[in-house]
From TrEMBL:
Protein name per Swiss-Prot or TrEMBL: Uncharacterized protein
Domain of life: Eukaryota
Amino acid sequence: MAALHKTGLDQGQINLVAIPDGLADDDDRNDLARLCDGIYSVMPACLEELIGKIRETGEDEITSIIAD
């Protein structure tokens, strides 16, 4: 977040959140088939859970989601 703050953005405008990709830390992410399987089977439920938690707090409004 420090890099974003230097660009003039107020902290809180952009929240970066990691969502699990379904692979262990030491798994080979160059194995595209395993990576895609992990992403499609794990990420959707994690994203739904994250959105639900954000909505429950009522503090933040989600305006955009960028997945990379």
